[in-house]
Fold this sequence. Notes:
- By secondary structure, the chain is of the alpha+beta class.
- 32% of the residues lie in helices and 17% in strands.
- The chain starts with a helix and ends with a strand.
Amino acid sequence: MNAFKTSSLLAICVALTMVAAGCKHKPPPITRFGPNNGLTGDHGDNLNNGGALGNTVGGPTEMGGGPLATFNPDDFNQDPSAFAAETIYFAFDNSSIKTSDEMKVSAVASALKSDASAKLLIEGHCDERGTEEYNRSLGERRALAVREALANQGVDPGRVATRSYGEDRPADPGHSEAAWSRNRRAEFVLLHPK
């Protein structure tokens, strides 16, 4: 009887694991202008007028200090290694850039100002804690905070796109504070025309 209960429990666990593994996530949204200069996601939903981020996001000025990027980063050659050393890390549930990371922002700003053909994608990431929706929003706020910091250093914000991956792309798959601190980040992807 005990073996029957154990095997039944094991079968249920295997079935649940298979179901969970089969779940797919939607691709991350790209921030860009849409009709009437409203903020849009990939599907053109106007997020300023009741869309997914309507309650947490204001207009373009509040979204990183200037006009949003109108280009698609996927239409460019992407170099994620160019600024790998400049990855920005965040405190738990926070999108403020630490004083210790301000030099990294300055280094990226200098590089962009010296190469007029380059554009930038900032990817916002979170640790696994929190709901998927909340983490997508927090990842976007982190990317936009870095974008605004670059704008404050003279980088045209129209050259900088943002994308949030939320918790979907952890740098460290662990489940500890050390892993979570590496996952709360904004990464820079250098873009050049194809």
